[in-house]
Hints:
heterodimer; A: Rossmann fold; 2 domains; about 25% strand; globular; B: mainly alpha; ABC transporter involved in vitamin B12 uptake, BtuC; two-stranded antiparallel ribbon; two-stranded antiparallel sheet; 6 strands; disordered N terminus; disordered C terminus
Amino acid sequence: MLKVDNLHVAYDGIQALRGVRLEVPRGSLVALIGANGAGKSTLLRAIAGLLQPRAGRIEFEGRAIQGRPAHRIAREGLVLVPEGRRMFPNLTVEENLKMGGFARSEADVRRAEVEVLELFPRLRERRRQLGGTLSGGEQQMLALGRALMARPRLLMIDEPSLGLAPKIVLQVFDALRRIHAGGLTLLLIEQNARLALQNSDHAYVLETGEIALEGPSRSLIEDPRVREAYLGA
Amino acid sequence: MTRPPETGPPGRTSSSDSGAVSGGRVTPPAAEAQISDFRSQKGSGAFVSRAFTVVSIAALYYLSHRLSGTEATYLVHVLTVGTIYAVLATSYNLVNGITGQFSLQPNAFAAIGAYTAAILTLSPEEKAMTFILEPILPPFDRIQLPFLPALLAGGGMAAAFAVLVGLPVFRVRGDYLAIVTLGFGEIVRIVATNAIGLTNGALGLKGLPPYTTLTGAFVWLVVTLVVITGLLRSPVGRAWRSIREDEQAARAAGINVFRYKLSAFVVSAFFQGVGGALLAHLLTTVDPKQFNFFFTFNLLIIIVVGGLGSMTGAVVGSFLFAGGSELLRVVEEPITIAGREFEGIPGLRMVIFSALLIVIMLFFRRGLFGRREFSWSIRGWRGAA
């Protein structure tokens, strides 16, 4: 469904990604793990069109999308949940959700809203509250909910566990599993490698801008290199 | 100026906990009903507040009309200036406060609007008398339009220039808008000084018909507020605010950030063009120095004091500023205190304004109104403009 080939991205001449190759098949949950600064967020941002790659090819559902503006890519159904629970703090929960469905028809938005509120009942209780007044976990759910409002076909999530209490992280992952079970393809970045590998079908390990390892998550968990570097075992 | 109350009639709200929640899931029919509940904001409360708004607009209109006919010309003049400031400030606020793009635009667009309208309303005879350095360029020597088309032309011209300026500026990110709009204001001023065949150069245009009345300015303020608040409540307004909140997230949500920044800028420029034209036809002169940087700076004070992002704040700030600069005139005139005469100090008003600004910034970090708006609702202030 999503294919990235030989992707190069640089910030002010410093290479952040060197020839990254990655594939996300339809219906899968693919995880991308790696240390701080390995280039994980850069990769997602480049796919989403928020960064312009220097070279390489990004294909979504058979069409090349590299170099297209971010809002177009989002409308194609390839939606990013940016890092750090980026919702709109001074808009209400309800307005935040509506923003997510910005490019969709009124009827679509209404339907998506029902689904999202069903998935996150907390958001229903807080729908008139400002996004910024929610707790960390609720904000992450709002960010997820907003992205779902766009009715994505592939959802990319950047570090959903960042800065959340362990219990809340489990709730967020529980929500992700339910979203995935509903048939949505997911590409997930996660620093918490164990959590990522336990919850995904396939995983890539990114090290200093290159894919160091890849394989089915089940076998990566057993891989001695992964165990030593990322699982602390 | 008003917003519908936040919820529908009591009793239909706060059912989220009593709804059909079972095992963390809400059954779809219940969910559906609830959503339609908060979607339709046509409760009796909204109707009442709308009625209040219409009645108060009508009352203010009548009042402005009555005042215009009285001897209180000074008061009427100050109120008219305040009303025009309010048109300029609310539209400026759209770019700076709502969309969150720091811009220093109003003097440029007000000047464009003022000159455009003035050239169109001056009678051919008046033009022949005014343009002593160079005759005015044809066909403008013969054109004369009534006030409304001239105002619309002024606004339209400002909007057209906003497109020209905005197209390149909004392609790049960052704080370029402030620099470019500052520079554009200077360009407009220099062009106005040197395009003598169109603007009469440094002498300016004089003897404009005094078309601007308090009532007329008030009607334009209502139009400005209706258009802007209408847009703010629409998806367009949400897009503008989301850009202020987080531009990247807005892009990731599928919003064409470039287009929405440009549209806010153009709408804002249109009303600034109209505001400039109203001001020109109140003072009956236009000259290049009138729309210098301080013009913009005063409006910036108004919207910051009122609260960036609050239209209520922009309106209140405008009248405080217009009234305040008149009241403070005292300090620049010679006064006698306890038998001793003190000479007035020119410019002291601005010193006091600056001191007040500092005080307000110390005690009201986000301006007098923050982002709140006036509302008839008894629940009081509505947050999150």
